[in-house]
Structure formats: structure tokens, C-alpha cells
């Protein structure tokens, strides 16, 4: 009887050990599944963030390009104004410059 009781106890311990092993394996599998899910979620969030930052960057590039068009127009206006100012000044003093050049060219020095 003692042998039977000992044998029964061993069987009970082996059963408990197998059950514990199943629980550990299930927990390990669940942990791996959760880690995989967390990794996928992190990659998804990272991709969304990257997409958002890229869109913001493209928006800023578009804004600065738009400003570039405005800057080009402004610079063209400033350049045209300066050219007109130079033409006006040149026509205003051209007579004096011609007179000065003629005086120096026609003056003979010994």
C-alpha cells in the first residue's frame, strides 16, 4: 500500500509538473505574441509619425517656395525701380558728362 501511495504521489507530481510546464509555455507564447503586437504597433506609430513629419516638411517647402515666387516678384520690382532710377540719373547728367569729356579731349596741353 505504501508503494501504491508513493507511486500515486509521483504520478501526481509528474501531472502537476506537466501542467506547470503547459502554463509556462502558454505564458511564454502569450508574451511573444504581445511583444510582436507591441512591435507592430510601434512600427505603425513610427510610420504615422514619419508620414506626418514628411507632410509638415513638404508643406513648409511649399510655403517657402510660394514665398520664393513672391520674393522673385519683389526683387524684380526693386530691380526695375533701380534700373529706372539709373536711367533717369544718366539722362539727367549725361549732358554734363559729355561737356566734361569734350573739354578734356579738346584741351591741348604742352
General description of the model:
The chain has 110 residues and is mainly α. The chain has 1 helix and no strands.
Helical percentage = over 70%
Query: In whole angstroms, how far apart are the ends?
Result: 151 Å
Structural class: mainly alpha
Number of strands: 0
Order of SSEs, N→C?
A: H
Main beta sheet strand tally, sense and closure: none
Fraction of residues in β-strands: under 5%
Chain-averaged pLDDT: 89
Which stretches are low in confidence, meaning pLDDT under 50 for 5 or more residues running?
none
Overall 3D geometry? rod-shaped
Structural Rg: 46 Å
Total helical elements: 1
Summarize this structure briefly.
With 110 residues, the protein is an all-alpha fold. The protein is built from 1 helix and no strands.
Amino acid at each position: 500500500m505504501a508503494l501504491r501511495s508513493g507511486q500515486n504521489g509521483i504520478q501526481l507530481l509528474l501531472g502537476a509538473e506537466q501542467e506547470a510546464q503547459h502554463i509556462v509555455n502558454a505564458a511564454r507564447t502569450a508574451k511573444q505574441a504581445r511583444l510582436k503586437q507591441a512591435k507592430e504597433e510601434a512600427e505603425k506609430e513610427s510610420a504615422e509619425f514619419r508620414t506626418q513629419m514628411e507632410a509638415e516638411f513638404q508643406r513648409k517647402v511649399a510655403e517657402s517656395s510660394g514665398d520664393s515666387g513672391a520674393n522673385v516678384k519683389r526683387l524684380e520690382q526693386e530691380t526695375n525701380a533701380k534700373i529706372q532710377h539709373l536711367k533717369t540719373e544718366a539722362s539727367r547728367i549725361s549732358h554734363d558728362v559729355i561737356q566734361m569729356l569734350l573739354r578734356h579731349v579738346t584741351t591741348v596741353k604742352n
